[in-house]
Write a structure and sequence with these properties.
five-stranded mixed β-sheet, disordered N terminus, alpha/beta, 5 strands
Amino acid sequence: MSTQHRASTIFKIRGVKSWEKISKAQSFSADPLWFKTLINQDKNPPRIAFAISKKYGNAVKRNKCKRRINEVVGQLVLNNQIEKGTWILIGIKKIDGEITFDQIQKSLNIFVEKLKIKSS
């Protein structure tokens, strides 16, 4: 699958002020991931950040997980399931072993459904 869509449709959360804003946002948990979300009134593309502890594994394992999450989020953005102006902080709960692509997809789909219920 092509990953060209991600560079133009998802921004990263950067800067101290942005991190302070998102850290105070609403939390939601869907095993094995947890989320903090903030919905702004602007129409900028969604912003995403990761919080993956070194306890999850070495850099290779953490980066692989980030790539998987980024791919699923990219698909959700392409399908317009995540609205513009949404900021999302995604973290991993303590887990033994490795998180699979299917687990990430399931957690993010639960999260998106929760977002749709809140915005209705």
